[in-house]
Amino acid sequence: MNAWRRTRAAALIAVTAAGLGAVLPMARADAAAGDGTPGDPNISYVGRWNMTNSSAYVPYWAGAYLRVGFTGRTVKLRQRNTIQLWASIDGNAFTSFTGSGTINLTPATLAAGNHTLIVSYRQVAGSYTGDAVFQGLTLDPGASTVRAPVRPKLVEFVGDSITAGATSSQLAVTGYGFRVGEKLGYDHTQIAIGGMCLAETSDGCWAQETRYWMSSGGQVGTDQWDFSRYAADGVVINLGTNDKSHGVSAADFQAKYTAFLARVRARFPNAKLLALRTFIGRYAAETQAAVRARNAAGDADVFSVDTTGWLPADGLSDSVHPNDAGHRAITDRLAPIISARLTTTTAPTTAPTTAPTTAPTTTAPTTPAGGACAVTYRKTGDWGTGAQFDVTVSNASAVPVNGWTLTWTLPGSQRITQSWNATISQSGAAATAVNATWNATIPAAGSAGFGLVTDSTLGGATGFALNGSPCTSTS
Asked: What is the CATH number of the domain that holds 234?
């Protein structure tokens, strides 16, 4: 974003280079479990870190952090030069610390026992040139580190200054990506720098299409990231807000978004990829078209996320950047969607290569003889402010259904906010689901399924009909 674009002045480059001067390739020393040195295997480093110097690890991008358990009543960080960071102990609120040398994270001593620590450093960007070089932990005499409980999944959040948390109170830590990860109990990292575009432009917009693959996005050198270092279970992409200001055409944006999704898929073959509509709606149609193109190419694990209406009236700190309230609102909407996607088995990832990208099927729909269809509409998730439903459409006739449209009536004022394995539209209480390319045929005595997320927990949907023919239902 323009309001928080990183400065490429020579002074910044010089200071950053000087800050990493000691992080040079050298023989890795074997660290003992529990000793608190950077190589201690009890310390988890999440995101992209430079570990070439065994005595000084450096975090890259906005969302990298370390996580570790420890015993005793105090914990201190050994830092090289002045740095700002945020630390959370035992799941409490993140506290800001600034300093150099030994930084005491427990000015008020803790109760004796086991504790968990998370440390996130402020990203070097704009005029900020802090020295994020972790040199280890200092614990009480006789205390040691312990392995923190393993988190079940890891999600990458890819974007620009919005994803980096610009203008929120604690930057990356109060950004929606960090908040979503902590809310779900997942590991998470924000691959984001202020001012980034999707497409590299002639006027100098740094772009994820070229810099996502780098260890530091080009802020420190151009070395390529080793994607074998971690495997993301989900990748959430929020790009396009800046491209418009740099003259990227709609057609070029769509083509580059499609290619970017394909390249990310090659790096993370098993991840769910979620493409967010930018919060101010730029390139919304092109983002959705890129997702459809990948679906038509056989990748059923790429999804569009419509963010329309997510930001409350008081959710912006300026005309573009969410404030803390905005990031909290995004978190409340996005967390259940990610949870649903990462815990749901998707339809087969094979689709006809000739399938159109704008319509699910070209075959004329057929209807089960005598309206022999049944629908199971089952709530599979409930988080208080919304719910997930899985829908199964069964064909009890002796002939297949080739191309299907399911209609039904939603309860109350419920709205559908997300869907997968079908294209869903809504007008008032009337909802319509049209098959995807890979589930267009419901075999005789077979079934097809899709899922959706709603903005309330109400059940009791009624009036199901398949291609205009009434269905029995369990709801």
From this structure: 3.40.50.1110
